[in-house]
Design brief:
It is a single chain. By secondary structure, the protein is mainly alpha-helical. It contains 11 helices and no strands. The radius of gyration is 26 Å and the shape is globular. Keywords: Cell membrane, Disulfide bond, Endosome, G-protein coupled receptor, Glycoprotein, Membrane, Receptor, Transducer, Transmembrane, Transmembrane helix.
């Protein structure tokens, strides 16, 4: 068995008949420029999402921690793509085998982290929706362990090709799209991700059927309707994120599967197009967050306006802070109690201390919550 680990990357590209431009052409400049622009937006948008979840206590629940971790995976994808942009085109010829594996491993790790994180979100929603709860009772300690586990699995799968599952010692098994990857690894990776997508779609389909049946049986009490709308809206946001991920990544995974199974298939024609489509997914999630979640939009505005309005807001709103859903529920109960008292006592309730009673109760709440 002959191993070619001392060869450079161009040797494997020539074997797979994947051409590398030796000189910069117009299309190379356009691709790198657009790629860097998209990467910059991906990094900025996902940092904004992570800051919003960190700053707003309304989002301090397992589902939002997992959504924040998904934003971290997208942020890592943006960094990985930026690294790819600086090591593509004519720069590819100068790469060593180790550097090429690093370039591909970063992208593989970010995709794997996103897929596993979406699976974790699906399981979390399955657990909570079937009891018509808004948030899981999972402890913060378990959420942290889950997030650490997601990244450990993603890193290991990203390192698998460089640890031996490649074609350096079996040149006939090299793929066309990734000339140093073994075709068997591409088949394994593509099938694993496609199966994961299928399972997630099945889980969400089951959840939607259950929610549809359950909502027909619920009474028309105001609090129950409000709770139902909150659950369904959050569910729609998660499904939109999943749907966008599947649409953006499935074509590329199918192309990888064809590359692994069909040696004579022309997969290089659509390679760059599907790569751009996959990259677009990383900045779609923040758009979905801001479109679907009003609290997220408000938090985004607070963060973006802080540099110019921070001191003014500090003076004007020094007593204002984000509350958790439980605190909002308690405050709403007090308000409803006062409204009921006002309706019972008539207009005289306002002169009999109604607002003062509410104000005293709210002050007591503030002191216990702080």
């Amino acid at each position: 068995m002959v191993c070619y680990d001392q060869e450079n990357v161009s040797f494997f590209y020539n074997m797979s008949k994947k051409n590398i431009s030796e000189r910069w052409q117009t299309k190379d400049y356009v691709m790198v420029s657009l790629g860097l622009l998209v990467c910059a937006f991906v990094i900025f948008a996902n940092i904004l999402v992570m800051l919003a979840i960190f700053m707003n206590r309304r989002f301090h629940y397992p589902i939002y921690y997992l959504l924040g971790n998904l934003a971290a995976a997208d942020l890592f994808a943006g960094i990985s793509y930026m690294h790819l942009m600086f090591h593509t085109g004519p720069w590819t010829i100068k790469l060593s085998v180790h550097q090429w594996f690093v370039r591909q491993g970063l992208i593989d790790t970010s995709l794997t982290a996103s897929v596993i994180n979406l699976m974790a979100i699906a399981l979390e929603r399955h657990q909570t929706i079937f009891t018509m709860q808004l948030h899981s009772k999972m402890t913060n300690h378990r959420v942290v362990l889950l997030i650490v586990g997601i990244w450990l699995i993603a890193i290991v799968l990203g390192l698998v090709p460089s640890m031996g599952w490649n074609c350096i010692c079996d040149i006939q098994q090299c793929s066309n799209m990734a000339p140093l990857y073994s075709r068997s690894y591409l088949v394994f990776w593509a099938v694993l991700n496609l199966l994961t997508f299928t399972v997630m779609v099945a889980v969400y389909t089951r959840i939607f059927i259950y929610v549809r049946r359950k909502t027909h049986r619920m009474s028309q009490h105001t609090s129950q309707v409000k709770h139902k709308e909150t659950v369904v809206n959050l569910m729609k946001t998660v499904v939109m994120i999943l749907g966008c991920f599947v649409v953006c990544w499935t074509p590329g995974l199918v192309l990888l599967l064809l590359d692994g199974l069909c040696k004579s298939c022309d997969v290089l024609t659509f390679e760059k197009f599907f790569l751009v489509l996959a990259e677009c997914n990383s900045f779609m999630n923040p758009i979905i967050y801001s479109y679907r979640d009003k609290d997220m939009r408000v938090t985004f505005k607070r963060i973006l306006c802080f540099p110019c309005l921070g001191w003014q807001q500090k003076d004007e709103h020094s007593g204002v802070r984000f509350n958790t859903l439980e605190q909002e529920r308690r405050r709403r109960v007090l308000q409803e109690a006062w409204v009921a008292r006002k309706a019972r006592d008539g207009d005289g309730a306002q002169t009999n201390g109604g607002p003062l009673v509410l104000k005293d109760a709210e002050n007591m709440l503030d002191s216990t919550e702080s």
